[in-house]
Model the fold of this input.
Amino acid sequence: MRWMWIDRVIALEPGRRLVAVKNVSLAEEHLHDHFPADGRGAALPVMPASLIIEGMAQTAGILVGHAGRFAEKVILAKIGKAEIDRDAGPGMTLRYTATLERIDTLGASTTGVVELMDHAAPGTAFAEIGRIDMMFSHIDRNMAGTEFPEHNFVFSEGFRTLLRSSGIEAEF
Done:
């Protein structure tokens, strides 16, 4: 099973920028492990920072893949910087904005901003909670001698459904 850490693409400027959102829900089982009630206090369900970073990786990866018409298998190669300043909990919305800095036949680099909206707070608006810089590799070009399946296993049917439901048609 592939895990999706974004719910919808809300803006796409091909080859330049992609914006996606993730609604954090108490129905997500991983929230109950971070942090369960114990003898010291009540439960404090939060989305782990590693999953917030993965949401940005999926957002930026779609941007890189789309720039190449999904012809390449795009994988995350390096996280240059990841700063997350605030937890995301149930009822909040994350907004990921990925910007393409460089792309060539070997891969791409992106910068990203993570914003959070707490719907329970008065005067609700998105506020920046993090910045993430990433590098991606086109593995078919960079892993000489290694055989990968012909089908694009990175951009699976789940990603196709996400793009289609966001109004973006993509062949891969």
